[in-house]
Structure formats: structure tokens, C-alpha cells
Amino acid sequence: MSGDGFDWHGFLGRWQDEWVPRADEDEDDEGGEEARFVLGRAGAAEAVIVAAEERLGLRLPESYREFLAVSDGWHVDQMAGVYQLGGAADIDLFRDPYDQSTVYEEHLGDEPRTEDVLLAGMWRRAVRLETDSDMSHALLDPGDVGPDGEWALYLSQGWSGEQPDRYPSFRAYMEAMHRGFHRDRAELADFVNATTRAQDARVEDARRLALRGRYEEALPLLEEAESYGRPGSAVLLNQLQYVRAPGSPRAYGDLVADPRYQPELLPVEAVAVGRDSWRRDADDQWLGMMVARGVDRETADAVLNAVRNGTHVYAPPGTWGRTVAEAREAARWGLTDDAWRILRGALPSWEAPGPSLIAPLGLFADPVLGPLVTPERGRELLATPRAGESGPAPEPVPDLDPPGLAWLAERAANRQPGDGYRAVWIEGADPSGLPALIGEEGAGLSAPTDPRTASWGAPGPHEREGVELWEDRPVVAVGRIAEGWAFAVDVNSHRRLTGLFHSPAAAASAAGRAVVVWREPTSRSADHPTAFHLSVAEQGEELWAFTLRGAKTERSGAIPDALDPARLCRPEDTEQEREARVLAALHAELGLSLPRFALTRGRLPTLTTRSWTREPREGEGFGYAYVTTGPHRA
User: Fold this and answer.
1) CB burial class (10 A; 0-12, 13-18, 19+) of residue 587?
2) For residues 61 and 170, is the Cβ–Cβ distance under 8 A?
3) pLDDT for position 26
4) 330 to each of 253, 426, 454, 481, how far by Cα in Å?
């Protein structure tokens, strides 16, 4: 950094010219209205700087020497920190008066990081620069030297209890303090100068770049403007960061109360508090914060409840809104790649409701559409020109769902090892009609739910009036596949096939051909191999079925050659290989598939089916066990 021609005269002169007091301080009016607060002093002569170096036994780094030659000290005016930097005659060795080195050395551990070792030793060798502060110190460390020969500067705030902030050089520290000077005054109406005008122009440039899809160019402009506290910069920057990394909470200030932006921003902020539902006070704190920003409490409460229970719907106006509704209908039933292609094609038609919004954030709060926007798709969204701006379209992100069913056999990659699954496909059926075909009495479709957790809160037979203990009524996720089949699947089934198993294929086939697959959870015992069942029915009658259990095959009906396990499976195959072969054949012969993304990362409606087990006949037995937990009694 030394020798790079940094203009200390221009930098410090600009800072001096920009001076106005903070809102919480009064400028010294001694000398009348014409008095001017002076931040610096006349520069130190080279002989004075050399004398200081001889006294310290050190040659000071170039950026600090150049500063002293221009201004022999400076009024930093850092809130709750360092107020005044002394001149060459004022600086001295720090000498660790509070024995901080011992404290930091005790926490180094057996394999400390280089930066931790440097920090532990800094306290004894550093040069102290401040002459007025609030229990704070500006310390130049001659032991922490960069490739450019500059010393790191540590800002220690003793009252904070935190580690000191590190700056790579004195110049970097002063530039940061200048930015802080601006942040402290950014809300003052009369704080207007060349720096504020330049940074505000950068914010507007960044906004237009972002809407043209050039978000990577917009990011550094907004980051710089935000470091100066410029109005609007943080809101725009938060949007870019949120879309690039969906799920990271961001705040949008009073814009949540603005009618133009509220439909997009209020639900997004509600998503973040929804994740903290385990905290008893989270809702009240959030609602209070929204009211303080100007949001009607009933509106905020309604949005929070809708987001939490999965009933919130992102419904913007205009052409974009009609496209969103079409995409939502596709994603609602598991066709998430189709849904994203619909959204991607219409992104240029999105119109910003005002200058403070540069992306359709409302997508992320929709329980059906939100999960579709992965980080890769978020970057694709940001790279797409929109809101009337033009530019090249980005390369489309590849589809996320693999074809067919083979992914079900890749258990370690998609679900916890040992989990099973069971599914029903019904040809030509509409997913909304599945409750009537396979649902228990009075069953309906739920709001969009995480399929992996849909059955967690479902009551057991012993907890439901009118349900027999032998019954097995799974909670299944419902959707459709592009080939014209509706499906219902329990993607994380923990139940096992028993002698009471009764395939739902026949009942499901009243509307058309039906296929049932059930793979048990992986068995941990060699004496109890994992079972895999396949059955097919049409017009209410089961046509054929087979169950693989280790080396044994139970079969019934006329199994087509293409799906016959005797042809598909080899004696040397593992259970997983046999399963994969049957799944591949089902895809090849019947076009069956399941949407991995929707089932492992998305949201789908669910329903509770009729029992997959039949009533025991005379002489047959069954077992049912459940575990309850409660307070321990001595």
C-alpha cells in the first residue's frame, strides 16, 4: 500500500470539508457562528517523525508516516471508541498495561492459527496512537506486517468484551473511519457533499445494473455505498444477497409497511420468524417490530400465520402474476422443473412496484414456489434482465429432477439409510381426486407440507377413535407426473410388509390402471431380508403382483415379461440392485417416475389413506407396539 500514490492531502481535506456534527453532539461554538471545527493539525516535519521513530526504536510504516507528514494527528470522532489520534510526539509503545497477552496466550491451544499467535503477541509490541478515547486503543503492530510492508492496526474497545478489529494498514483504518463518519451522519438532511452525491449515484447505477441482469457488477457498488450508510443501499444489497443465498434472513426496514412493497417483503420477513417457532416469544417480538415499522398488527399476524401453516400464496398482479399462478399449479403437484421453466420464461415481464425492489422476493415466501429457487436458480434469476431493462439472457440452469425412479434406490443420497418408501400411481387420475379413491373416510388434501415430515405428527391407531390397532393408514404426499399419472407416496416409510398386507392397487384402479410399490426399510438382520413389493390393478381388479424377499419371490397373476423379476433379477444381485432393476423397468415400460426435488426438498399436499393392512382372519394374530415418554418417577 505504500508508494501507491495515495493522496492524503485530498483525502483529509475532503474529510475536513465534509465535517458536520452528529445529531447527538453540538459543534464547539466558541468564537461565534464562523468558528470551524478542525479535525487535523499541520503536518509534522521529517525530523519530528524521525525523532519519534528513534524514541520507539522502530521505523513507522509508510502509510502512517505519509499521514503524519500531512496532518500530525486527527480527530477521528468514532462513536464509543477512539476520539483523537495523537501526533508524532504523542505516540508511544503500548506495553500491555492490562496483561492481555497472558489472557490470549492461555487460549491458543496446541495448534493455534497464525492470526491468533500474532494477536496474542500484539499487546506487548504495539504502538499506541490514540490520545483521547472511551476505554479504546488504536494499536499499530510491528509484528503483523503485510507483503506491502504495512503494519496491521488493531482497534481494541475494552468495554465491548470482544476481540479487537483488525485493519491491514493505517490507511485502511482511516478509510474505514471515514466511512463510519458518513454512516453516523447519513440520516441528517443537510449532510450533502461530493462523497454522498457520488455514493448515491453508485446506488442508482447499481439498481439499473441489477435489473439488467448484471448483478455481479452491482454488488461491489452497493457494498461500498452501504459502508457509507447511503439510503437505499442496504435494501438493494440485502435483496441481491438473499436471492443468491435463499433462507438467509434479511431486514428491509420500513418498506414492509409501504403498500407498494408489503405484499413482497412482509411475507419474506415472516418466513424468518417462522423458523424460530420453537421460541415462545418469537411471534410477539416480531409482531412488535412490525408494528414499530408501521405495519398493521392484524395484517402482520395474518401473514405470519399463513406463512407458518403453508397457506400463504404469492399472487402479484399483471402478466407476471398470471405466470406465477400457472407455475404454482405445476409445482403444487410436484412438477417443479416445469414450474421453474415457466417462471424463467416470464421473468423479463416482472415489473418492480417501486425503485426499492429489484427482484420478485415474494416468490421465496410462497410455500410451493419458494423451495424451487435454489442458490443456482437464484443467480439465474438475478442474471435475467427484467422490469423493462434489456441485456443478454443467462444460460439456463439444468433441470433438477432425474428421470424415472432409479433415485429411490440411492438411499444415502436422498434419505436416511434404512428408510423405506411406498407409492401408488393411478393412470389418468387428477391428484385432487385421490382422497376419494384411496383416502380414508372424510380425508382431504392438506396445505403444502414437507413430504419427509408429513407423517411425524400423525396419530397412531391407538390415538384415533374408530381406528383398529391392526390398521396401517399412512400419510402420503400427492402429485402428478408428466406422463399422465397421479401419485401418492410415503417417501420415508418405516412400516414393514406383514401377512396382513392388502395392496391398495385394486381400490385405486377404479379410475384407471394403478401401480403399487412398497420397499421396506433396510433390514439390519441377515435372517430378515428386506421385502420389495409390486402390484398392478385395472378396473378394480388386481392383475398381477410379486414380492421379493431375499432369494424368495412370491408371485401371482400373469406378470409381463418386461417386468418379470425372474428375467430382471440375477441370483448374484444385491437387494439394492434388484430394486434398481425393477424401478428402471417400471420407468421404461409404464413411464413411471417420482419428482425427487418435490419429495426431498419441496412441498406437496398430503392425505391419509385407507389401511394398507386387512383385518386379521380367525386364527391370525398381529402385534402393535408404541412407546410413550413422560416425566421420570423415582
Assistant:
1) middle
2) yes
3) 59
4) 34, 18, 20, 10
CA dihedral 316, 319, 325, 326 (to 10 degrees): -160
Beta bridge partners of 427: 485
List strands edge to edge, sheet with 552-557.
552-557, 541-549, 531-538, 514-519, 420-427, 485-493, 475-480, 606-608
Using DSSP, state whether 553 is helix, strand or coil: strand
| CB-based contact 400:577 (threshold 8 Å) | no
What type of residue is 218?
Answer: A
State the Cα angle at 627 between 621 and 633, rounded to 5°: 135
Judge contact between 532 and 538, C-beta under 8 A: no
CA–CA gap between residue 175 and residue 153 (Å, rounded): 12
SS (H, E, C) 376-430: HHHHHHHCCCCCCCCCCCCCCCCCCCCCCCHHHHCHHHHCCCCCEEEEEEEECCC
- CB 229 within 8 Å of CB 182: yes
| pLDDT of amino acid 433 | 95
Please give the torsion angle defined by the CA atoms of residues 503, 506, 508 and 509, in that order, rounded to the nearest 10 degrees. Answer: 140
Task: At 479, give phi and psi (nearest 5°).
Answer: -170, -165
**Cβ pair 477, 489 in contact under 8 A:** yes
For the whole model, what pTM was predicted? 0.87
Q: What is the DSSP letter of 336?
A: H
429 backbone dihedrals φ, ψ, rounded to 5°: -90, 150
Q: Is 100 helix (H, G, I), strand (E, B) or coil?
A: helix
User: 129 Cβ partners below 8 Å, 6+ apart?
Assistant: 85, 86, 91, 138, 139, 140, 153
Helix (H, G, I), strand (E, B) or coil at 173: helix
List the grid coordinates of 609: 389413506
Q: Which of 154, 168, 81 is nearest to 120 (CA)?
A: 154
pLDDT at residue 277, as a whole number: 54
Please list the residues that pair with 74 across neighbouring strands. 40, 85
Angle at which helices 8-18 and 194-211 pack, to 10 degrees? 100
> Residue 574 corresponds to which cell in the numbers above?
444385491
For the chain, residues with pLDDT lower than 50 are 1-3, 29-34, 417, 632-634
